[in-house]
């Protein structure tokens, strides 16, 4: 291509096209030009390398240039000219350009003859390019160099390359408007193109150096200029969602035509018009993403993926649609390595059930029917493991039908809907001998190490018999006693326990951290079962250590008569980083003998570091006898070797706390139906705006009064109808009685109340009164009873995710009497938008569309749901309106099998008295909340501790004797113990109270 335009005479001042004879203005895109520029060796017959460092002549390139070469090589645009050599100074001809352009633009042609007389398939050098050249001609990219000729062997000069690139960028008019470079080595017709190409950094010519426009472009220039042009083109190209398709039962893969700004972009999946919750993971190249459904799986129907978050003018196509199908089981396979199974009461057979995507089928174990032995006499159960495999537990030692060493047993498993099945006959060998064991991946309750007191790590213990099969746990054996465990490195605070994991027959080793450790380390856990030995590494992290302490302000003003005060405490490590509350508790030890790290003192009462709860890491003074205008002095001294940090501060005691005002803490219903209860919640605040449960004197008190129509009554919270309790018309609350007032009140409307005349109501009034009878504050709330004919709009409150208790647990925990159940609630508003309190029996029926996923029923007059197996289903709720109409509504409920973990531990009591009858839960007035939002009160924690894992400890024991607490919370006190600190710990969460022994 040394004479590049049949339309432009040499040295023409009015060129129509670049030299070389291409008669049509190139209109496609930069990539066509890139094809010209980059078409040196895509068609190389041998792929020599995948990156620049694989070529001897590219290894010395600077990092930025090497990155450009890597991009072009890895995209398949360029390759080496021979093994190990890229050929920086080699040239590219027009045949090569045609192939690159066709590949980049995905231009297709099946032509076997050419429109150009000099392009023939029989040409040994350039015949391969015939279909590509025809593809470019059909696309209008070129119609040849001269009439009827393409000149496939022609070269490309540097100024011609500049012109191709500028036109590809759609900037030819800008180039023509340029005055042009002052460079005699560039043809007049090309000077504007070269100037703009240099401004766009397509070429970098050192200042003062000639461009040499008529020289042939070499491979290094073609790569770098093509790379830059491609970046400019991509930046101007509009983004499109090119494809979305189902790639798994819970995954959708989305592809784009170019890179996406993932910091701004969002993807949303819908089935029809219904949104589907997903997690989005972008590919490293930002040109695709995988959407993983979080609460459901794909089902038959039309789906769409919508791209949002980007400027509208930068996006061409934002939506891609695709059709999905229901999951289909395609095959079931036995995974046992041998045709022989052991003679045992707990034989495990593993199977893989695969769906149409080639992944483990999501169907639960209950979706399969198993026939094993004679009339199923050997089948014990079928379960599903976390990895998706199925596990059959058989008893081959049952009866006289199966003989050790020479019996057989036939196993057939069928999926109930698809009827896909598999069967196999196994030989029965001898009793199992553990010949091999493996410890799986360690799972930590928090992070990637045990880093705090009470945290746990779990690891599966897989045992294999002489036939290579997994050995299932024997229900009757105590493996915690028969399996040996020890650590190669000594750490007194590591404790191990072997337990059976659910129903799947696999053993789990639990490792607990009994206390915080001062040194991080990796500890080798050794496990021996029969003659087999296995090991795994357990990571332990130390807590941060305080090297400096500083006393802060009191949480609330200290007043005369207070018996407790909370003081802020700041601690810092050796690098000046402030420690968290957890770190303070972990690193500052008191009353620990040789482990003491801090000494505390106070001039009034006793002082300690709060170990748990909302004040964790602060100082607490108890048993104070402070008087008005007195001063309390507090000191803290670090006692660890090498430390010299202390602080002292004084705190002024102010006058006794007195009730100062009243504060409403909820938004009570203004209206109610007959049979309903409206809650009123309010608190007494002292002069420091703190909630006041006890006043020193009765000089200021709260007077509550209620005036209600017949059938409308006021009761203290939760006391309606209880023995020894009565409805309130007037009542005075003073001193310790303020705590009862702060619990709130119920306005109870009788079920038989008739309000057809619209004249039934109740008025609640609370007044703060001083000894002179002056009203200091007042709150009044009216509750109007509306007629049963009122028009109300009803809404069933959504139920958050449920745990698959029916599938994963046993006994009561797997029934609707389980503590893991959730109550289904309904609310109502009138036409004015006011919330209307409803009777407790509004919901009359509840039913699930799929009982294998969710169980639902009314228990004791209350509607409940319980997760059974993983999935999503609809629950229908039947209810009576105020008018007596029977209506239904439905809600969607998701069930997950993510293990239950404690999310919150809260004890209402900071102190309590132990008389010998109370358990730990009652003394703390403990509530534990799990990751599904289920709250476990004091009465049910013990029965559910198999999933909650609450540990109780007694510390700071005062007097002579000891305190022990069982996992059920049963307390045993021996000797003459005066008091102790009771703490409940689960999953790193905790709370505590000071207990006085009576």
Write up this protein.
By secondary structure, the protein is mainly beta. Helix 3 (94-105) packs across helix 4 (130-138).
Could you name the key traits of this structure?
mainly beta; six-stranded mixed beta sheet; five-stranded mixed beta sheet; globular
**Main beta sheet:** 6 strands, mixed
How many separate helices?
Answer: 14
What percent strand?
35-45%
Query: Outline, from the CA principal axes?
Result: globular
Name the helicity range.
10-25%
Residue stretches low in confidence (pLDDT < 50, at least 5 long) are 1-49
Oligomer: single chain
Radius of gyration: 40 Å
Please tally the β strands and state the result. 59
Helix/strand class: mainly beta
Strand order of the largest sheet: 39-37-41-42-34-47
Short description:
With 998 residues, the protein is mainly β. The protein has 14 helices and 59 strands. The strands form 16 sheets. It has a six-stranded mixed β-sheet. Strands 5-6-2-1-8 form a five-stranded mixed β-sheet, with no helix packed on it. Strands 18, 19, 20, 22 and 23 form a five-stranded antiparallel β-sheet that branches.
Which secondary structure elements does this structure contain, and how are they paired or packed?
Elements: H1 30-38, H2 63-74, H3 94-105, H4 130-138, H5 158-168, H6 172-177, H7 191-199, H8 219-236, E1 239-246, E2 251-256, E3 266-271, E4 274-276, E5 278-282, E6 288-293, E7 301-308, E8 315-317, E9 319-324, E10 329-334, E11 340-341, E12 347-355, E13 368-372, E14 379-384, E15 390-394, E16 408-415, E17 421-428, E18 436-439, E19 443-444, E20 456-464, H9 479-482, E21 484-487, E22 494-501, E23 506-513, E24 521-529, E25 532-540, E26 548-554, E27 564-572, H10 581-587, E28 598-602, E29 606-609, E30 619-622, E31 631-638, E32 646-652, E33 659-664, E34 671-672, E35 677-680, E36 682-686, E37 700-708, E38 712-716, E39 730-733, H11 738-742, E40 745-749, E41 761-770, E42 775-785, E43 793-796, E44 802-803, H12 805-808, E45 822-823, E46 826-829, E47 836-837, E48 843-848, E49 854-859, E50 862-867, E51 871-880, E52 886-896, E53 902-907, E54 911-914, H13 920-924, E55 926-930, E56 935-936, H14 945-948, E57 951-965, E58 971-986, E59 989-997
Helix pairs in contact: 1-3, 1-5, 1-8, 3-4, 5-7
